[in-house]
Design goal:
This protein has about 325 residues and is of the alpha/beta class. Helices cover about 20% and strands about 25% of the residues. Bound molecules: flavin-adenine dinucleotide.
Length: about 325
Amino acid sequence: MRDVIIVGGGPGGLLLGHFLEEHGIDYQLFERGKIAQSWRLMRHGMKLLSPAVPGVDWTSLTLKYPLWALHGVQRPFPTREDFLCYIDAFAREHLLRIVENTSVARAAVAPGGFSVETSAGQVSCRFLVVATGSLSSPAYPDIPGIASNPYVIHSSDFVHCMTYSGRRVLIIGGGNSAAEIAIELAGTAEVTLCTRSPLRYFSGTGELEDIRGSSESTLKECLRFRIIALRESDPAVGVSGRRVRFESGEEEEFDRILCATGYRPAWIPVDGGDVRADEDGYPVISRTGESSVPGLYFCGSLARFNRRCAFIHGFRNYVEKVFWDIADRL
Ligand SMILES: Cc1cc2nc3c(=O)[nH]c(=O)nc-3n(C[C@H](O)[C@H](O)[C@H](O)COP(=O)(O)OP(=O)(O)OC[C@H]3O[C@@H](n4cnc5c(N)ncnc54)[C@H](O)[C@@H]3O)c2cc1C
């Protein structure tokens, strides 16, 4: 029986693995793809919204091993590729015990801990930590005609603007992903951005979730010059094939309807345990990350210790709490 099993090899799971490794605690981490698989699937060339420079570092997993120290990293905002290299190097330099290409299907409460079903067989552990992230389940807007519509895609499926050359693309959403994809498509496709409320910019609100970075000024100019059309506070209310009806009563036809509407938290089923969730669907956790099932912890973006926990710099504070709680009980 392992002391700790971690499910998920993203920044959250890897940081916990690092703490366990440093303190000589027995653990095994299972990742369904390669290290930081969810970052491998993100758009190429995407820039992070969190800076990584000496003194203002919101991105490194530990300040002892900072991202900005890697040769050639873009400053102040690293690219997705920089971050991926960093995470990969972090895991390999610290000799973390990761089993790649092995997914965990489910777990069950068992005497003294958990029994865990992986694609490579059954394993058991005393403490189980779920770090599968909040990006595994794309969220679509609840609009009649969106589900199973072949013209609808999610922002997580967007690869490159080439695919959309000359097409009429409707982007549903008003956050950073919507803004970034609209800008990437601008000039290549005929882009319309549709939001349910007024666009919110970081320069005006100071809120990290609002449109920020270079996207803010570029989007404003594209809207001003009508390179991107805007249906602000005029949400789509019905879709039939390519035809979209808006709240204003107007209708328009598009070749693609792209939903930049975020993700829903989801995790593996745990038989014999009732994992309580809050009103937003996140697991209810203690101040040290333990769920309503004793011995089952959450860490990384699935663990909402507070609102900022979705960002990597929150992990530096909170993953360590998960580590110490488990270490104290071993
Ligand atoms: C477009 C985009 C841009 C972002 N930009 C930033 C940014 O600039 N700065 C920032 O701080 N945050 C950013 N984020 C948020 C970012 O996703 C999180 O900060 C971080 O990746 C979450 O880490 P995590 O370890 O919790 O989850 P993830 O990074 O999602 O890692 C979870 C891992 O678990 C694996 N997994 C899932 N299910 C299983 C299973 N059943 N068995 C085995 N393995 C499994 C997945 O393959 C994945 O590798 C961004 C998110 C998105 C979508």
